[in-house]
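pinning this so it doesn't scroll away 📌
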Amino acid sequence: MVSLLGSRDELLHVIERGFDADIHVRGNEITVTGHPKENALVTRLFEELIELLGTGAELSADAVERSLSMLRTTTPSSSPSAPPERERPISPWRRR
């Protein structure tokens, strides 16, 4: 989990600053609470970062910021009037 979140949660803090959603980590589960479009973006970012880790890449704050920026430019912005979605757990170590 350290490879995904960074030392002292450095990468998690980068992700939290990039989204208007609450992101909580407990054990091997990441829970996202917020607007549905933001939750979808957070989930997509974590999925992409997990894929990168699977290729042997090492994540850095810069790489996470670039990935976040690419997601923002390729996905329409979220609607601020959308109602908050219930918590959405992400399990980074589940197999597909």
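📌 and the second one:
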Amino acid sequence: MRRTSERIPWLSRRQADVLSELLHGATNKEIARALGVSPATVAYHLRQLFVLAGVDTRAGLVAWAFQHGDRLRPGWITSIDELDRSGTSK
């Protein structure tokens, strides 16, 4: 796992973990491998996140996460500028 997520009041710990991996550009299979769950479990959590964010695409979810970065725990990526070209946090 790239990052360990602390509990966010309005996200479950697993949703926060999935979102963190997604923000680093991971596919469902990569997220599943990193978190030790099945790709179907990742898809379930992504669907829950889509509903929570009011979006229907991964890109929309990433945009939502960046817009609400001030509500995420310190240390989470809060702007595109904090990503280097490889998709990892600077």
